[in-house]
Amino acid sequence: MRDRPNDRLAILAYDHLKTFEFGIAVELFALDRPEVGRFYDVTVVAADPGPLRATGGFAVTADHGLDDARGVGTLVVPGWPMDDRPLDVAVHGLLHDTVASGGRVVGICSGAYALAAAGLLDGRRATTHWLFAEDLARRFPRVRVDPDVLYVDEDDVLTSAGSAAGIDAGLHLIRHDWGGQVAATIARRMVMPPHRDGGQAQYVSAPPPVAEDWLAGLQDWVVGNLDRPLSLADLADRVDVSPRTLTRRFERSLGTSPGRWVVQQRLARAQELLLADDASVEQVARAVGFGAAVTLRHHFRRHLRTTPTAYRARFGG
């Protein structure tokens, strides 16, 4: 955790507001969090006179203007119109002033366009939704656009990939500011893993997952029984299908195998337990069904590129 972080955070609202990205920022940073204690002091500021049109056919009115975002520790830009209009002078100034005063700016999804237009991404790595990456690189050739990651942290400038990757970036930011246990608590409340592996390349042109009612019940049961061995046969018996049928349906619905999905759930739970108390690595390994510390270490190295001990030391707060 940073020493005495500037916990003032502003979310930028604007005309033609990207509703989902704005909602992500509110959910991550602006909700009351009595379970975590001290948290961000959040203000929503309007870049344009209201009411502001929002995606979905409704309007938003913010009670504060840009001046109320002066001196914040974090300024979040949840999406941004991708037209050719020049960046408003006042928004340009606020973005620069935030960084110059020691704060940072966060662009969620197309929010990278505002940061790029302000020149804050020149010579830096950045990302955005894979659909927009080529356009961002063309319009702002000084930006090193990486279309294959969920987010890019350049210290005082952070950009995220498409839509839901803003949650990954936000949890990363929370982990940096308040520690891993706080991030894990919020991730659990949002029904998200504290850390999601991989980049957005896995989503490019991918068919949408097929929702199946039986899968939700099986997933809930698995998460409640992670200390058990949970073989493929166990899971198939649970929903009264053959292992082959279960594998086929799992891959169709989630794009992964039952075995890999179970490992992901074990790892997510292990991350929570490592940050929750001082249980030994051996105890955590048994609690999540890996059986022994050596197996837990193997999966941490393979999937998270670290060790359980190093993860606890880094994110334990």
Could you please describe the fold and organization of this structure?
With 317 residues, this protein is an alpha/beta fold. The chain has two domains: 8-189, 3-Layer(aba) Sandwich (Rossmann fold), CATH 3.40.50.880; 211-315, Arc Repressor Mutant, subunit A (Orthogonal Bundle), CATH 1.10.10. The protein has 13 helices and eleven strands. The strands form three sheets. A seven-stranded mixed beta sheet has the order 5-2-1-6-7-11-10, sandwiched between helices. Strands 3-4 form a two-stranded antiparallel sheet. It is globular, with a radius of gyration of 21 Å. Residues 201-211 have low confidence and may be disordered.
* Assigned CATH architecture of the largest domain: 3-Layer(aba) Sandwich
The strand order across the widest sheet is 5-2-1-6-7-11-10
What would the CATH topology of the largest domain be?
Answer: Rossmann fold
- First-residue to last-residue Cα separation: 6 Å
How many strands, which pairing sense, and closed or not: the largest β-sheet? 7 strands, mixed
User: Structural class per helix/strand content?
Assistant: alpha/beta
> What global shape is seen?
globular
Strand content of the residues, in percent?
A: 5-15%
Low-pLDDT segments: 201-211
Relevant CATH superfamily of the largest domain? Class I glutamine amidotransferase (GATase) domain
Count of helix runs: 13
Number of domains: 2
CATH C-level category of the largest domain: Alpha Beta
SSE string: EHEEEEEHEHEHEEEHHHHHHHHH
